[in-house]
Amino acid sequence: MSQLKQMSHIDSAPPTPGKFKMDKASYFNRVRWHTSLAKLAVWSFVFLGAILIFFLRSPASSPVPADLSRRSLRTYSWGGPVWEKRVRASAQVRSRNGFAVLVTGAAGFVGTHVSAALKRRGDGVLGLDNFNDYYDPSLKRARQGLLERNGVYIVEGDINDEALLRKLFEVVPFTHVMHLAAQAGVRYAMENPGSYVHSNIAGFVNLLEVCKSVNPQPAIVWASSSSVYGLNTKVPFSERDRTDQPASLYAATKKAGEEIAHTYNHIYGLSLTGLRFFTVYGPWGRPDMAYFFFTRDLLKGKPIPIFEAANHGTVARDFTYIDDIVRGCLGALDTAEKSTGSGGKKRGPAQLRVFNLGNTSPVPVSDLVSILERLLKVKAKRNIMKLPRNGDVQFTHANISYAQSELGYKPTTDLQSGLKKFVRWYLNYYSGGKKAVE
Ligand SMILES: NC(=O)c1ccc[n+]([C@@H]2O[C@H](COP(=O)([O-])OP(=O)(O)OC[C@H]3O[C@@H](n4cnc5c(N)ncnc54)[C@H](O)[C@@H]3O)[C@@H](O)[C@H]2O)c1
Ligand SMILES: *[C@@H]1O[C@H](CO)[C@@H](O)[C@H](O)[C@H]1NC(C)=O
């Protein structure tokens, strides 16, 4: 980066400007001409040298495609023996029959919790995250700090960086990939649609391309979303229900991911499990989600917007506590069969699954506010508003019987007790000078 800056500096400061005064003696003109030529030569060498140094010093770093949001216009540097040693140490398996798991989106909300849980039980874990600023990156850095203290290293990079992914698989033959990196959020899609295509479609394809070509191929568990149920009105949502009427670009990219997963399973024998998360909440959560910013706004005395559907219809969510989601993710990894391909070719049929991970008890958003009022001991200024038609659906409710039978998934935390833990974390985190809490 500093070299780049230097280069542009050189660019904008050209050598002696070519002004020749014809009334001076030709001798002086020639001397001047020679010196400016010499200067030009010197600067050219400096310039070439700078380019050379730039490439020599970062042999393995590759910039992400430049046609994207400003946030992804970054160059990460990686590679080198020290870096490889760190990667290997983090991915070191410590339990018998443990996995070596690459967790994408590890600095994210779910990624942090899943990484910590895997590490705790003795699996090797390596994180990957681009630390984008969709929401406050300092929260991602704090989660990174938490994982670091638990022996998990997060490589800073983009899932679109094919060279980086190949390098990671070269250093560690990952048995599993827990793919959680994505552009989340429903409303932001109208502001920055490209970021959804970049991370949820292009990035996913890039990851699958690398996974299909390595030997052995890893098994992949990845996060889809309950939003694929879109405008469905039949509840509870079951895995076999239609998912062809998404209400947001976010939902459409997750649905696309499910179809892309089908393709890579079909052609290359990759073992793929998609998890449709239902509104996950908890400590270290995402500041763009309602329970999080309601808490912030309640404490500030700001009015809380509560959406209402047509005819005063209740807007409700099947809020799912993070620990339950983590158990579902681990259950999916534990039951994932091996991929069957090798040498980039399918050798037999491979596992392809999709599961709902919800809580099976939808709660009206107004009840969420009431619980927060009690926990925070403040009175909310409720601002009832019509649900805008920009992506949010009225109701989500998961049928989890399939996950129950296949993964042993059984959520145990109700919204009241889960929010209690969230609020405790929130108050601690934001009052303690952003000091990490465990
Ligand atoms: N939290 C929920 O309620 C919920 C619900 C349904 C689905 N999901 C899905 O679960 C997954 C995890 O969600 P979360 O709540 O932890 O979100 P999050 O935003 O906290 O985590 C995602 C992480 O991925 C990283 N990331 C994004 N694009 C990347 C890229 N191109 N390369 C590398 N890293 C990138 C981000 O920096 C972030 O840290 C996502 O796929 C999300 O779509 C979440
Ligand atoms: C839940 O899904 C299962 C299939 O996994 C199905 O047999 C059952 O009928 C569904 N239950 C409801 C109430 O829709």
UniProtKB/TrEMBL annotation:
Is Transmembrane helix found in the keyword set? yes
Q: Which Pfam families match?
A: Epimerase
Q: What is this protein called?
A: UDP-glucuronate 4-epimerase
The record's annotation in SUPFAM superfamilies points to: NAD(P)-binding Rossmann-fold domains (SSF51735)
Locations listed in the record: Golgi apparatus, Golgi stack membrane
What sequence ranges are listed for the domain NAD-dependent epimerase/dehydratase?
101-338
Topology in the lipid bilayer:
Multi-pass membrane protein
Indicate where this protein is primarily found: Golgi
Subunit-structure text = Homodimer.
Family statement drawn from the similarity comment of this UniProt entry: Belongs to the NAD(P)-dependent epimerase/dehydratase family.
Q: Which GO terms describe its molecular function?
A: UDP-glucuronate 4-epimerase activity
Q: Which reaction does it catalyse?
A: UDP-alpha-D-glucuronate = UDP-alpha-D-galacturonate
Sorted alphabetically, which keywords does the UniProt record give?
A: Isomerase, Membrane, NAD, Transmembrane, Transmembrane helix
**Transmembrane regions:** 37-56
Mind telling me which InterPro entries this protein's record contains?
A: Epimerase_deHydtase, NAD(P)-bd_dom_sf
> Mind naming one GO cellular-component term on file for this protein?
Golgi cisterna membrane
Q: Which organism is it from?
A: Glycine soja
